[in-house]
Amino acid sequence: MNADEERQFREFVAARSRSLLHTAYLLTGDWEQGRDLLQTALASTARRWSRLRDREQPELYVRRAIYHAQVDRFRLLSWGRETVTDTLPDQPSAQGAHWADTVVQRQDIMAALRRLPKRQRAVIVLRYFEDRPDTEIASILGVAQGTVRSQTHKALTSLRAALGEAGPSAASSSTASGRGVIA
């Protein structure tokens, strides 16, 4: 960077650093981290100052550098986070032991859902997976609330029958999970 470029960069920093610091603060939620983030972005910008194509819009470049530095920092800080516990687990948790059953149960439920007629499937998805009330479901599907309730009843009856045929492991594990899809 020559003397003229350095002067331009210093003038830019003096004029725009307050606004850029506010942006960095909003991204990090902390003034000190925001200052560090801005410093990182300005250092990156200073190295590339002579190659910036549009000298009229360096702020856009710096804001982009701030954002990318924050994303990189977030990735770096989230990498390898550990959970502190009082005791070390000697064995996998009980939940891990039933993982295969959970996968099979989910596959059975999805297969049973795919066999439902489209309206019944839509009602079940909106009610139990998106947790929407009858009035909203009726509005979304363009039907009466009574239709929503009757389609729910028919769909649950079909699902109970299909999952009952899938075997005792699917029926017992699905009701024990508390998810409420077939209960």
Task: Provide keyphrases for this structure.
183 residues, 9 helices, elongated, disordered C terminus
Structure, explained:
The protein is 74% helix and 0% strand. By secondary structure, it is mainly alpha-helical. Helix 2 (31-48) crosses helix 3, helix 6 (118-129) crosses helix 8 and helix 7 crosses helix 8. Residues 169-183 have low confidence and may be disordered.
DSSP summary: helix tally: 9
Rg on CA atoms, Å: 28 Å
Number of strands: 0
Major β-sheet, in short? none
Low-pLDDT segments, ≥5 res: 169-183
Topology order in helix (H) and strand (E) letters:
HHHHHHHHH
Helix content: over 70%
pLDDT averaged residue by residue: 79
Proportion of beta-strand residues: under 5%
The dominant shape is: elongated
Distance between the termini: 71 Å
Structural class, from helix and strand content? mainly alpha
Strand and helix layout:
Blueprint lengths: L2 H26 L2 H18 L9 H21 L15 H4 L1 H17 L2 H12 L4 H8 L3 H21 L2 H9 L7
Helix pairs in contact: 1-2, 1-3, 2-3, 5-8, 5-9, 6-8, 7-8
In short:
The chain has 183 residues and is an all-alpha fold.
